[in-house]
Amino acid sequence: MRVLQVDIVVPVRNEEHDLAPSIRRLVGYLRAGFPFTARVTIADNGSTDATFQIADGLARELAEVRAVRIEQPGRGRALRAVWSQSDAEVLVYMDVDLSTDLNALLPLVAPLLSGHSDLAIGTRLARGSRVIRGPKRELISRCYNVLLHACLGVRFSDAQCGFKAIRREQARTLLPLTQDTGWFFDTELLVLAERAGLRIHEIPVDWIDDLDSRVDIVATALADLRGIVRLGSGIARGSIKVPRLRGPSLAGPDGSRTAAEVAITAYRRA
Q1: DSSP letter at 46?
Q2: Which residue from 180, 190, 193, 189 is spatially nearest to 220, judged by alpha carbons?
Q3: Mind telling me the catalytic residues?
Q4: What is the pTM of this model?
Q5: How many CA atoms lie within 13 A of 252 on its CB side?
């Protein structure tokens, strides 16, 4: 049996219209030459429409897809539940609207499979990124990341891009330390990872804003602010203790370059 290298988790809630086209597009990309063994996990969290029925149908139709039902809503809750049980070497999170160009998937996961990095994130705020979105979202995103730098002293550039990956063994250590069940979850995970000394690799991405997004910007921003206060105060008081983790070796077991490193080289030459 082949080892599963990448598990791409797509958390969804009431996405009956966008789910099937996005998943078919993602599977098509994987079949077109993605060099690693991969699975797409649709993590339905509390949908009240036909989302899970569609997800289940896709899982029956497409060999690369499985569907998981989490009864309670919450993106963070869904990711924690699926990632905690996944058997893949690298765990990916991707928004269902596929706002991030899928060509960034290979450079996202390859450094983790090679052992070069422990986490990887797509960033819309680095040189080389190409972003199309409204001024309101742009301002909120930049202010949020400035706040993270000022309050928590983080070094990563973009906490909110829905395009992230983590090695399974690091996830198993950090996930029990996370508390948020919503949109702040991946920011919390990144802060804990940086505090643990893990290596975070940033990928400039091409990103197009989803004009039909159902995210409540104001409610999400307020929840994020509460999350920053909770996390910052917990770290300051010592009630949140983060272990120092050592990353894996860059070389393969015999000291040679791994398949992922070869893939990185091929991508950079393309």
Answers
A1: S
A2: 180
A3: 186
A4: 0.87
A5: 8
- Asked if 45 contacts 82 with a C-beta cutoff of 8 angstroms, the reply is no
* Residues 113-164: tens digit of each pLDDT: 999 999 999 999 888 899 888 787 788 888 888 999 999 999 998 998 999 9
Q: Tokens in use for 59? A: 């899982």
42: buried, middle or exposed (CB in 10 Å: 19+, 13-18, 0-12)?
buried
Closest among 164, 40, 166 to 91, alpha carbons compared? 166
Q: Which CATH number fits the domain 6-269, given the four candidates 3.40.630.10, 3.20.20.70, 3.90.550.10, 3.90.1100.10?
A: 3.90.550.10
Instruction: Provide the residue ranges of all domains of the chain, joining segments of one domain with +.
Output: 6-269
Residue-wise pLDDT for 22-73, tens only, equals 999 999 999 999 999 999 999 999 999 999 999 999 999 999 999 999 999 9
Cα–Cα–Cα angle for 155, 137, 230, nearest 5°?
A: 50
- Tell me what the mean pLDDT of segment 78-82 comes to: 98
Q: Tokens 């010592």 sit at which residue?
A: 238
SS3 49: coil
